[in-house]
Amino acid sequence: MDNTSAAAALMELNSVSKIYGIGNVGVYALDGIDLSINYGEYVAIMGASGSGKSTLMHILGCLDVPTSGSYRLAGRDTGSLDELELAEVRNRLIGFVFQQFHLLPQLSAWRNVEMPLLYSGERNGKKRKERAVVALEKVGLAHRIDHRPTELSGGEQQRVAIARALVGNPSLILADEPTGNLSTSQWGQVLELFDDFFTKGQTVVLITHDPVVAKAAKRIVHIKDGHIIDDEQSVIVHPEANMPGGVSLHELD
Do the Cβ atoms of 154 and 105 come closer than 8 Å? Predict the structure, then answer.
């Protein structure tokens, strides 16, 4: 049975191009990309340095906008959103995990994790801490909630960053080279977490240059020179996929 037929698209890119520079010196980072990712998929976007995968990640995460073409997220054309609305989308619909952990060194683990809740306007400090602790429990760090980043291993710091991405119950976990600063044993633990999120219905998109890391996903999209050159369509969509994770773009109007 084709699981994609009944699934709804979370992300839809149609003829998306991104050009840096102007006139005759313009360089296509992306050139006419068509891509659809459904709720509940676990997708790896794989390519070498300079392939366009980072530019694609920035567009998927509403960190940048296409030069041409359209990007629809949760049914809404992101091209119609202004900067404040895009910031709201990033905060409420997307959980980001980066190669760099971006933790504040002076804050404990749970206080780092609560930061997106502060940005979203949650004023109840008790509720913020409760949600932060629950997120840390999900990544196996219930015993480290009061530790600062300097007191944690690299793998533990990345798990704190993943908990921070989860705390707002996003529709999408967007992970950009999340294992890049970790040892083999540590990135194995991180990939196990992503697989667990997928089995519980979370949408996960993993950006990587590493084919071993990409194989952790259920679908691999290969990108080269700004083009999708292969899309391994052995798509698995979890039947309990989050559609969407607590808020739709239309609720942000």
Answer: no
